[in-house]
Amino acid sequence: MKTILNRIFTVLAAAAMILTVSCSKVNPTTPDEILLEVNASNLDGNWQLTAINGEALEEGTSFYINFDRSGDKFKIWDTMTSIPSSYNYSEGTFALYTDPELGTYIRGIDSVKEEWSDLYVITGLTKNQMVWTGVNNPSFIQVFTRVSSIPFAE
Fold first, then answer.
1. What are phi and psi of 13, to 5 degrees?
2. Interacting residues of 122 by C-beta distance below 8 A, sequence separation 6+
3. In sequence order, what DSSP letters do the residues of 39-99 get, joined into one string?
4. What would the pLDDT profile of 95-115 be if each residue is shown by its tens digit?
5. Residue 129 CB coordination number (10 Å)
6. What is the CA radius of gyration of the chain?
7. Taking the model in full, what pTM does it have?
8. Nearest CA-CA partner of 38 in 69, 1, 74
9. Which positions ≥6 away from 34 have C-beta within 8 Å?
10. Helix, strand, or coil here: 30?
11. What per-residue confidence (pLDDT) applies to 20?
């Protein structure tokens, strides 16, 4: 009887070790890969647009956005439609909304009360990256990467 109990205990101990090892490898995320809740606190800071529809931005073009969670404000610097060596600047407020089907999306209104051309669903928000998908144009996908500073900001 004692040998049967020893074998059962050995099998259970081995199974527990295998389960522990296998579970630790199932989710090998680093803190930078953990998905965050989409809220003003987690958006707060500087972001650079790094890709549109899977393609890197053209050489010499850039788009930066700064989110300030106090007052839900944004500032944008971009060279997408300006002449070389200059940039466009706008600022305004943003709001986040949650839709049961879409998820969390963002809407912006600039200082002259013009709305952004689209609403954007924010997904894949991590400490260092996020993805925006156009609500009216779901094939329009933008990837943003967190940056420590914005070259145009004073």
1. -65, -40
2. 38, 43, 96, 103, 104, 105, 106, 130, 131, 132
3. SHHHH-EEEEEEEETTEEPPTT--EEEEEETTTTEEEEEE-SSSPTT--EEEEEEEEEEEE
4. 999 999 999 999 999 998 999
5. 15
6. 23
7. 0.78
8. 69
9. 126, 127
10. coil
11. 52
